């Protein structure tokens, strides 16, 4: 019984939109979908990871670009605010460590209070800058300071006066300079002794003077020590006076802040340290040393002492909003932050106020999303990320120091506790590489969100897809799509999925098509997107990328590529193949020929011998060789050597989708029966001759149909495909119409013997018990010819 060809209803799955009510005339009447359609598995994985607070439950989102991975995660986070589920947010500030300025301290404040605290400290500094000079520039301070100074002066003068009087009584004059030098001179009455008058004295008198001077020198040195001690005591008293005044000023100004922040332990401790430090650095506020003060005030923003600034690293502007950061350029500095340098009067310096936050600081308490490949491409980023996740804290270290191992002085800020979920977006290859080469990856990214490429197609999913289309229309402020346009886009999605019963989940493709369709509709001054606009947008898309297809088809027009689509030929068959570029693929038929010569049954693959055939193609040839041997060589070797090749193929050939075509060509060469050239075939096979599915079936059929149009169309032309590929058919409208009119035929076969029967018009034959085939069948004819050669 001859095999019935496929009817036109099997070639295309029309979107009836039974899931939509009859009242729904366009996307205007549809509720936009607030989630990514068909990604329930990935969404459950994200929900699970976000619910687990333990270390290591970060997410690796797997899938090709355009599946809406990031959009799905963002929409989930916007709908399900985890902030109410024990997620406490904080502001993080860096302040000076007054004991060690190289190690700034970190302050943890309730969310939203960081900038308020910074402003409070700035106001405090403004008050102190004004209050200190006033406190030290008034009559009360001057009188108290003058009193201390006069007490010291009185004591010093009294002591020196007493020494001078005692020396005069012993005939010695004492003079002391302001530099602390002193001179003791023997007196001759009221005048100092000259050298001559002193020499005229007796030796005893001279000795008396010398002994007296020596004794006075000893006494004077003791007095000098006392003077020094009194100076120190005066300095201490003066400092004590200054401190008491400073304490009164600072205590009065800071008291309000201490009350305001008494419940925040970190801030309370910092204010106490700052209080003590201000007392030790009053000169900064009094501007006693201009150079020192200038450097102390050198700032990139406000005029206040740098050591008392507050560097708000992270400020939660909305305390109710869950922080979500998307890092588009994940370099080491952009993620982990860095320390800037400032220049003042030729001096380069840095301090805690120049620490800058990275995206992981801003995402602390929330989620940080990055592209996995970009993370791995940038030096030191992956190691830094793992280090932070392992330790659950952020150490801001200089990348330059890690790279150069130099001893340059740098800051070592206190670490910030880290509570963040990292979501990496990547493909399967990157995921497998990380799994294989990095043992820590499994521990730090325990949740895999695997995004689907397609979803089952039914009335419910079509309704969801229509709402998904509506959401794109609403989000991008497009013209609304009518019912037929919605149906055509769903059919396009099925074609993209290469399956009548599935819908593609590559939302980027659908969004791009809608944008271009919207452009076409607006250009034609339409008020709504209609099916014709969708068709035109698809034609425009194809036109932009189909230059290579036009070039290949032109070779059939000019006859450069030889192909017969009308007659019969022995050992010659038209096979179907797909040519692909980076963004487009199309079908083009090619001729396969087989010739035989007396030999030992070997199938000689010319493509493989010329190093143009790939491994999969070679495997296909071996499989068909095994099938032929099982059919014709059970009792004796096949006495023929077959040479098999793709004609006019000058590039590489790979894949096994030509296996059945090659078998048909070889059987024709063995039997001498001609094959129909108006039929092309595609499909692989196993060792038992069973047809196996192949890819690109739509493009292959369309390619042969186009060539038939070029060469001249006849009613008998058609294509043979594996039965298992029928569900992949979403053919062009013109091909469906041609099949419906009987102008083109598509057969779906389950075994290569059915293809041989279609090509030759003869029965293949059923093997008898003795291993023989009836003589009036194709295999019977082959068997008789082979047996004749064997004899």
Jot down its keywords:
alpha/beta; Helicase, Ruva Protein, domain 3; about 800 residues; five-stranded parallel β-sheet
Please, could you describe this protein's structure?
Residues 567-762 form the Lon proteolytic domain. This is endopeptidase La. Pfam families: AAA_32, Lon_C, LonB_AAA-LID, LonC_helical. Its EC number is 3.4.21.53. This protein has 791 residues and is of the alpha/beta class. Among the domains are: 14-37 and 452-546, Orthogonal Bundle (Helicase, Ruva Protein, domain 3), CATH 1.10.8.60; 39-89 and 345-351 and 380-413 and 422-448, no CATH class; 561-761, Ribosomal Protein S5, domain 2. The chain is built from 28 helices and 30 strands. The strands form ten sheets. The protein has a seven-stranded mixed β-sheet, sandwiched between helices. The chain has a five-stranded parallel β-sheet with strand order 8-13-16-1-17. A three-stranded antiparallel β-sheet has the order 3-2-7. A hairpin with a 2-residue loop joins strand 5 and strand 6. Helix 4 packs antiparallel against helix 6 and helix 18 (483-497) runs parallel beside helix 20. The two termini are 35 Å apart.
């Amino acid at each position: 019984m001859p095999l019935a060809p496929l009817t036109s209803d099997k070639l295309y799955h029309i979107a009836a939109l039974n899931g939509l009510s009859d009242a729904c005339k366009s996307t205007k009447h549809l509720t936009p979908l607030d989630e990514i359609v068909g990604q329930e598995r990935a969404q459950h994985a994200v929900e699970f990871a976000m619910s687990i607070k333990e270390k290591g439950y970060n997410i690796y989102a797997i899938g090709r670009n355009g599946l809406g991975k990031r959009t799905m995660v963002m929409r989930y986070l916007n709908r399900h605010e985890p902030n109410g589920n024990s997620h406490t947010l904080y502001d993080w500030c860096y302040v000076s460590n007054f004991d060690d300025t190289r190690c700034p301290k970190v302050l943890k404040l309730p969310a939203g209070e960081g900038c308020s605290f910074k402003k409070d400290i700035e106001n405090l500094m403004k008050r102190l800058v004004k209050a200190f000079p006033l406190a030290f520039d008034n009559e009360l301070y001057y009188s108290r300071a003058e009193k201390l100074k006069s007490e010291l002066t009185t004591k010093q003068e009294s002591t020196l006066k007493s020494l001078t009087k005692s020396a005069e009584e012993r005939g010695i004059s004492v003079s002391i300079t302001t530099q602390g030098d002193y001179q003791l001179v023997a007196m001759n009455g009221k005048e100092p002794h000259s050298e001559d008058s002193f020499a005229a004295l007796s030796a005893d008198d001279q000795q008396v003077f010398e002994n007296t001077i020596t004794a006075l020198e000893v006494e004077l040195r003791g007095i000098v020590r006392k003077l020094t001690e009194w100076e120190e005591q005066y300095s201490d008293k003066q400092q004590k006076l200054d401190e008491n005044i400073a304490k009164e000023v600072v205590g009065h100004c800071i008291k309000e802040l201490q009350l305001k922040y008494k419940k925040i332990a970190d801030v309370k401790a910092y204010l106490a340290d700052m209080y003590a430090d201000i007392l030790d650095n009053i000169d900064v506020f009094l501007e006693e040393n201009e150079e020192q003060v200038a450097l102390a005030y050198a700032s990139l923003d406000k005029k206040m002492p740098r050591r008392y600034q507050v560097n708000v690293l992270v400020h939660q502007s909305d305390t109710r909003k869950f922080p979500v950061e998307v890092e588009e350029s994940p370099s080491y500095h952009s993620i982990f932050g860095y320390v800037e340098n400032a220049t003042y009067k030729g001096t380069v310096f840095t301090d805690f106020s120049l620490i800058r936050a990275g995206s992981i600081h801003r995402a602390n308490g929330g989620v940080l999303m990055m592209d996995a490949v970009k993370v791995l491409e940038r030096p030191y980023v992956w190691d830094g990320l793992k280090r932070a996740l392992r330790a659950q804290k952020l150490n801001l270290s200089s990348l330059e120091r890690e790279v150069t191992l130099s001893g340059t002085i740098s800051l070592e800020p206190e670490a910030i506790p880290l509570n963040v979920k990292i979501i990496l977006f990547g493909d399967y290859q990157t995921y497998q590489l990380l799994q294989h080469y990095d043992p820590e990856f499994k521990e730090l990214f325990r949740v895999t969100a695997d995004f689907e490429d397609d979803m089952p197609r039914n009335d419910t999913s079509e309704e969801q897809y229509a709402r998904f289309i509506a959401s794109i229309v609403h989000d991008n402020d497009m013209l609304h799509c009518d019912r037929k346009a919605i149906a055509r886009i769903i059919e396009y999605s099925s074609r993209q999925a290469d399956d009548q019963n599935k819908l593609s989940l590559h939302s980027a493709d659908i969004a791009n098509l809608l944008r271009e369709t919207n452009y076409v509709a607006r250009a034609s001054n339409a008020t709504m997107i209609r099916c014709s606009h969708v068709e035109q947008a698809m034609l425009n898309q194809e036109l932009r990328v189909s230059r290579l297809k036009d070039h290949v088809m032109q070779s059939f027009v000019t006859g450069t590529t030889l192909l017969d689509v009308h007659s019969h030929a022995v050992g010659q068959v038209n096979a179907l193949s797909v040519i692909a570029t980076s963004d487009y693929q199309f079908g083009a038929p090619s001729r396969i020929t087989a010739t035989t010569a007396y030999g030992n049954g070997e199938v000689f693959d010319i493509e493989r011998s010329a190093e143009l055939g790939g491994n999969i193609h070679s495997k296909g040839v071996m499989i068909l060789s095994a099938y032929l041997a099982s059919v014709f060589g059970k009792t004796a070797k096949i006495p023929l050597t077959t040479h098999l090749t793709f004609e006019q193929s000058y590039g590489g050939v790979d894949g096994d989708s030509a296996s059945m075509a090659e078998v048909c060509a070889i059987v024709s060469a063995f039997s001498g029966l001609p094959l129909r050239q108006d039929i092309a075939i595609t499909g692989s096979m196993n060792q038992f001759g069973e047809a196996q599915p192949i890819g690109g079936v739509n493009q292959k059929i369309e390619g042969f149909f186009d060539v038939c149009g070029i060469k001249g169309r006849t009613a008998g032309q058609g294509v043979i495909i594996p039965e298992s590929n029928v569900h992949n058919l979403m053919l062009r409208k013109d091909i469906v119409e041609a099949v419906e009119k009987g102008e083109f035929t598509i057969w779906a076969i389950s075994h290569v013997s059915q293809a041989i029967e279609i090509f030759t018009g003869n029965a293949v034959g059923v093997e008898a018990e003795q291993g023989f085939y009836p003589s009036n069948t194709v295999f019977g004819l082959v068997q008789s010819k082979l047996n004749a050669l064997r004899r």
